[in-house]
Records
---
Amino acid sequence: MAGRAQPVSPGAGLVAAALVAAIILGAVAAVFWRADTGAGLGPADWAAIRFTVFQAILSATFSVLLAIPVARAFARRRFQGRGVLVTILGAPFILPVIVAVFGLLAVFGRNGWLSIVLGWVGLPPVQIYGLHGVVLAHVFFNLPLATRLILQGWGDVPAEQFRLAAQLGFSASHTRRVIEWPMLARTVPGVWAVIFAICITSFAVALTLGGGPRATTVELAIYQAFWLEFDLGRAALLSVIQIILAGVAAAIALKLTPFEGLGAGLDRTVMRWDASALSLRFWDAGLIALAALFLLLPMAAIVLSGFGALADLPAQVWRAAGVSIIVALASTAILLALAVPLSWSIAQAKGAGMEIAGILGLAASPLVIGTGFFVILNPFVNPQDLALVVTALVNALMALPFALRILVPGAREVARGHGRLAVSLDMSGWPYLRHIFLPRMRARIGFAAGLTAALSMGDLGVVVLFADPQLATLPLQMYRLMAAYQMEAAAGAGLLLLSLSLFLFWAFDAGGRRGAAA
Amino acid sequence: MLQLDRVTIVNGGFRLAADLSITPGRRVAVMGPSGAGKSTLVNGIAGFHDVPQGRVLWQGEEITALPPGKRPVAMLFQDGNLFPHLTIRQNAGLGLRPDLKLNDGDWAQVDQALTRVGLADLGARRPAELSGGQQSRAAWARVLVQAKPILILDEPFSALGPALKVEMLDLVAELTAESGATVLMVTHDPEDAARLADEIVLVADGTAHPPEDAQAMLADPPPALKAYLGEG
Amino acid sequence: MKYLAFAAGVLSASAVVAETPELTVYTYDSFVSDWGPGPAVEAAFEEVCGCDLKFVGAGDGAALLARIRLEGARSEADVVLGLDTNLTAAAAETGLFAPHSVSAEYDLPIDWTDDTFVPFDWGYFAFVHNADLAAPANFKSLGESDLSIVIQDPRSSTPGLGLLMWVKAAYGDEAPAIWEGLADNVVTVTKGWSEAYGLFLEGEADMVLSYTTSPAYHLIAEEDASKTAAAFEEGHYMQIEVAGKLASTDQPELADQFLQFMVSDAFQSIIPTTNWMYPAVTPESGLPEGFETLITPETALLVPAAEAPALREEALAEWLGALSQ
């Protein structure tokens, strides 16, 4: 029925969803097919699964619990530079893992700033390594995302409700009970599940900060099966478990929060009469300052440690930066080709099937996907020739779930608001997309494109099997510098990576907003 | 007496000047061209816009800086008068206590108000389950429970059909006659004004003019009102 | 735009039919990087072979073997360079490698008799620390000390696996007790060598698992004599890196020529200051100045390649048991 009532058929989106599912499930299937041995899972694998789920639960819970007061502080305060601060605080989410870990250690490590300050007052250094270190790092990565999503929840509360609350003389606690709790009850489970899904596939963070083999995640077990034992069957099996864990979380997320998204209303602040008390103002200001310190100090450390080396970075690093930018732009193009049709199809559909297809990229192990692609492509072409194409594709698939969260709510609004009018004007297909859909979606598309480009810049992707020495990406070049003892140059490359990621994000995001139809 | 003592009300970049007073118990229509500042005026009185100059007084006491909920004002908005996730009974109960910790007597009062607006049996429903007219009545129940001496209506019935609107206007007249509340109603329809209002405040050219008798003003409108009403 | 054109150029280059014979060598990524031996080796070999030497980087040694196994007999590789003795048994078992014809006077602490793989460099694993640290002289006193160490995970990293074999080779059935002693010294375990060494340089730990040759980098490349390696009385475990010819190669003569070249002075003299390992055959000019300052272990430990896989499994289980408590 939806197809008749809407000016564009959902066909293109269905094709995109099927394509995504085929690519990812096909890659996993190829690994299974290639496997000789059929060894099942051992006790160590089950221990890894338990730890993975446990740390992901803790990470998601802490990220969300901390994000709620921070988001509330942002939601009810208006100040100079608020928009810029919200944007910059989003940066950790797009940081490459290795860069972020070193930034975190510069602040929280045994020899970090915090330990030095503690030393002044005679306290022992911080013990960062262990489960709490893993959780701290995951909170660092995901607090920005959680804050943005929950802030969106506040933005979605109609301004009239706060006006009515003021009319009725609500205090801050009344507002919490009547307006904010119900909103959070709708929003928070979905946010929690998204972060849970992200933390499920964590590998390098969990390992480096985990303090030992206690912190073995499923992704590391996959690595062991592939790298150490060449047991492809077990690697694929573990990958399937990972997909199921993240997929179930994602399905719950979508079920709980069908209409919530990343995009609009972030800059909209509603005048709030319930929170004008001086104590609440100090509370909110303190929270925003703390969150900013927590998120910005590690980034400051990255800037400080890399700044000196920036001037005389080897030429190869600049070349790698060029390659990475090309890959990021290609990823963005692929992403838009998939996500835009998906978004209008999902907007017309009732079920969540297509959106779950979109989650697969986040849930699948990059190592297994890469191996699967390799198995499929190797008989026909030299995988090295496709290194950049495959990297761009995988990065696009990884960013797809986030892009859909941004685009789908907007597509729903457009379909609801203008679908019938367009049909009555006999407007359909390309004219509708060009004159109605795309202009109305411009800001969200810019945001999604920026996020994808930035994520793609920082991702190591599937380069292990597809690496092309001449066309190394910037993260790979950074690893090479480290492997060649050139830690300072690597720090410089890390800073370059951070700057380029932020720049790409900003350029797309701002470009989308400029001239966007309001 | 509601007094606006040489006030300036600021709404974004827009400023509205007002120097007038309204007698308690009067029903006043606020009229004027689109964008002239009718809503700005009533929102300033209700406390939603800043009043950087002048004083707002009620019965001689200054209320200029009071937050909206502390003012002697109850307000019906164009929309968003009900929380969609609360029942009608809870929505009305909010008028009594924002934390909804109501005792039996309070609930009785809420039910009485619901009965008064003709929704006695629908208290357990949520707003989405009601018709437009029923939603307006539910909001009225809340206003009744609030029992504030000043009632502000910001084009509250503009989305209702003609018959329903007349019914609601009569309900306003009836209920405020009982309570003796002072009414300020923003409207663009002279028939609304004729039906309900004792007096009219004309808002035009950045100024809210003192109230004048409604019948006389409608019979012989001043130029600004005449231009707005479009009568030759 | 320049990069686009560049990328397009490289992508299409492989389509051009090469006039000269081409030798494809799979190796690990850091060998082929601009800071590794790759570029110099390529130039030196192409001077003498009249061929086009093409290095293909693929992760690390283990990923290299995985890739060869995935490609099987279809592989374009003629030579695989960069496996170590932990992997040679598994590599030989695949049946994908052909015997070599290389003869050389190796300067290895052990006799080399393998007829499939040719060694090109080697080193000792060691804990590297700042020179002003009073370092322990064996695993037991390290375990009793309160020094902090960073190690690599044996499930994802070659040095991590090396340490596992080191403790096992030195202590046999006592290995679990050694690991229990070390458990509270281990600050953290990283995915690979780079992360661990980075953590050490950032001051996150007193010592890091690396190679006895690591201080040579700081001394020679950075003129920094502050790093040294701790000599352990048990002896030090060796890593011997090897290359082998694939049975499926379409350039068998060229592959043999490369392997022979690999143990010649031209190749071997490149190794010390690019791969920061000992050359398998010491070049006539000797080792670079600075290498004489490195510690030279009394005992060289190495588990024979054939026994490595079984021992590895046992050692990994012990390691997991001791460090997971």
---
Amino acid sequence: MSSTPERLLSVAPSPAFWIAGIAYAVATAALLGVLAGKASLRKYAIGIVVVAWLAHAADIGWRGTQHVHPAQSVREAIGLLGFILTSGYLLASLRYRLTLGGVVVMPVSLVLLLVARLSPAGDAPEDLSSLGRVHISLATLGVGIFALASALSAMYLVEERTLKKKKFDALAFKDKGTPLESLDRLAHRLIWVGFPIFTVALVLGAIWVSKLGLSLDRPEYPLAAVTWVAFAALLVVRQVYGWRGKRAAKLTLLGFGAALLVLAIYLVRRMGG
Amino acid sequence: MSELFVVGISWRTAPVAVREKLAFREEEVADTLVALTRGQPVAEALLISTCNRVEVYGVAKPGADATGPVRDFLVQQRSIKLADIGDALYEHRGSAAVRHVFRVASSLDSLVVGEAQILGQLKAAYGVATTAGTSGALLGRCLERAFGVAKRVRSETLIARGSANVSSVAVDLAGRVFGDLAGKSILVVGAGKMSRLAAKHLYASGALRIVVTNRSPEKAEVLAREIDGVARPWAELEQLLAEADVVISSTGAREPILTKALFKRVAKARKWKPIMVIDIAVPRDAEPAIGELDGVYLFDIDDLDKVVAQNLAERAKAADHAGKIVEHEAGQFEQWIKTQGVVPTIRAMRSHFTKVADAEVAKALDQLARKDHSPAQQREVVQRVVQLVVNKLLHAPTAALRAGEDAELRAAVLCDLFGLDPDAVVSDRESQAAMDDTAERPEPRKVAT
């Protein structure tokens, strides 16, 4: 095998990566400031998120020019996942006031970006076919959408608890935030969009694995199945039994937790070589 | 220079029994303003009369003291004696008046700090003054700036954050669960006065319908008519709860009527769709345990009071920051007023300079038009024009500088205005030019034509 894939995987982070990293950190601090009552910081905070998003896009684009496909490995896909998260956050911010959501999403995007760029590159996958790339791309997109739904569900749980426990002096109460019903509805819609994408990714992944003749007793497979089952169950109980609110939010987080574990296993295995 | 002033009475200085004596009806304001500006030493005036204040903002005629006559005018208009309102009338002049207007517009002088109503009232009062023709350049500028300051204060501080009364807090809490109340249904349980207020507030926020139920159907009918709702029998309570999004309860029952057992059935029937219960009855109508059920949000009167107190405390904190913004803006406005004093001088200076330059340029153009000139001759004409303009403009100041007793002071002012450094080395030619009295200089040589 030529040394090209190794070279590609070890492409150093671009200057845009550092800008994005710093902007994510500053945006988190600014959004925390808004939550703490510095209302005038809001417009700057959103501006900084836009800077982080642009820099993140530039970094992915720059890697593209270096022949590093955003879905060529789990490591790259994690970087793309962070980008999808930030994109979704910005889109939702056009309609809703998501200060608390930003405090959740920005650090997650930052961590994903850091893991994607600074973790050891590991070995190049020698057998990454187009089927593999489509599988990784769709799985990343699906998990990205689930991640957004999970961020909204986490916000729901925090806001719901604040309201139920009547913590009127909590930061989550001081910021007017997004209404519980909107958070619940938006998360549900996202799952409706993400679920078919994730399902196709799962099927393609199964075909890919069977083509490669890999063993089926790897731990990520049942975890991926748990993710799928959790979201499928969520859609069913919501539709049939009218589940919503706290129960739906918890189930969303359970499904996403399983998806995160799958990603973590892939990443650790890649780093381990 | 004309001076801004404020004369008035407010909740700070007088109870309502005194304030109402001086209050003006909306339709009286325009005529009062016209009478004020015609009969008193007042050049510009605005009158604001709300439940919490009656104030005249005005500009005195040049050199006049307007506040005394305005006090007398106000009491005469209301046919009361000055003694009737005692020391309640206050006045501010100059910078204190500017600060007061800015503070009022920013709701820092309001009974409930941060309330939004006063800004609208002030804008309306300004509109009346403008229509009546009693608002001029200075007062207009002051008010426009005050509106800008109010906007800044609202956007940069938390002064308007959080509701300041129980009904608004109920709407605010409902907004946290449902967001927009459009399409939502409100159920009023009991026909108490408090529930009427809260229901009206919620209904005004866009709720779809309002249903009233009460043990006594007659009272339910009366309340339903009053708040534009529908009365339903008490026996249907469980079904009504299943259909409602927000419940306001204020019955006179001694025992809880909204029990956990009832709400378990209701929550299931609703498929755990969120429902907010605002229990403003004492003793309480709702068992606290219903708040533990999924999708049920319960708040009692103490909760609402707690939020109001907390919001007011937040506003008081924000008022400090807002006060600094007002101070800064008032300082800038005063600076602007001061510069208005020198505007005529600046205009006269520019006009004089332009006139001198235009006259010399016209002469030169005339000269050039008479026949063809070589490039060297044209250059000479241009140089001569510039020299002539400079000489003419500097003649009077130079003469005055030499003749004046306070020559040194004038020289210092000139150095300051033109950024001159007398100690700097100047060329021989410039030194010579400076020594020559322009009046004694011969006319520059004319170009041969």
---
Amino acid sequence: MFFEIIKKYRNDILLILALILVSASTWLILDTTKTSGSTVVVFKDNTEYAQYDLNKDAEIMIKDGDEYNKLIIKDGSVKVVEASCPKQMCVNSSAISYNNETITCLHNKVVVKVISDIDPEVDFIS
Amino acid sequence: MKAKKITQLSLFCAVAMIMSYIEALIPLPLPFGIKVGLPNIIIVFILYRFGPKEAAIVSLVRVILVSLLFGNAMTLAYSLAGAFLSIALMTALKATKWFTTIGISVAGGIFHNTGQTIVACLLMNTLEISSILPLLTITGTIAGILVGICGHLLIAKFPKI
């Protein structure tokens, strides 16, 4: 029974394995080429708002009227710990520490991005 | 296109739209709006019963209408990209005649998700594709297998009209 299923869907199983393999290798390549960052850049309403040193522990409050996002820089990584937005997607994002990683708060239009001083202009996505 | 065919396709398009709506009602504990892809059952069915051109038309109409009803211009842009990437790949894979609906819908599912994410990344210029690729592949595979089984049953049991 089990072997019949495998035989019947052999090509499908091979296709699925191939897709997983391609995706896994793409992920590995992207993951191994990433470099750790050194600076945290905060963008607010698409313009640069502030820069912070990633290797210095700090608590930062980004305020705009009633809207706020609270960041914590600790042990070379940055995280959003509190925010006024309804979806809390930025708070649920995990801490970032590598070059070009970002945390976005769509509601407050805040983007927290980690960059490396060595090559800050390179953008892997675009 | 004959009137009968237009009627049938619009009927299936309506079913696919309802599928999108039902899908939107089911909350999944996944980020980035990853979905099961229930409408893909209908698209796979149309791909087999009618052909790639019809599947592309129904998919296009569905994406536009669903985005207008429940989404916004952003969702339209990345849904279109995902839908077309997935239709193109499914058509190509079906033409080889090597795979069943399961393999085809898994490929379609993964590429639908991936296409959407790539366009979302390009538009927002913020997300890192590498961090979500594993999640997209795993969910795409599981959802694709389920959709493939449903599509297979639908193709086998649905009376020829």
